[in-house]
Write a structure and sequence with these properties.
This protein is mainly α and about 40 residues long. Helices cover about 20% and strands about 0% of the residues. It has one helix spanning about 15-20.
Length: about 40
């Protein structure tokens, strides 16, 4: 199957470190989206 779509959500409080770590395993791209205020703790 060429070009499969994959959606993964990773939750962290240290975004920069997580991006650096997971970029070693990713072939595609990643995007960071802000978390809605009502779901933050």
């Amino acid at each position: 199957m060429p070009n499969p779509f994959v959606h993964v959500e990773l939750h962290t409080t240290d975004i920069d470190t997580a991006k650096k770590f997971y970029s070693r395993f990713s072939i595609g791209s990643s995007k960071t989206y802000p978390c809605p205020a009502e779901t933050t703790r």
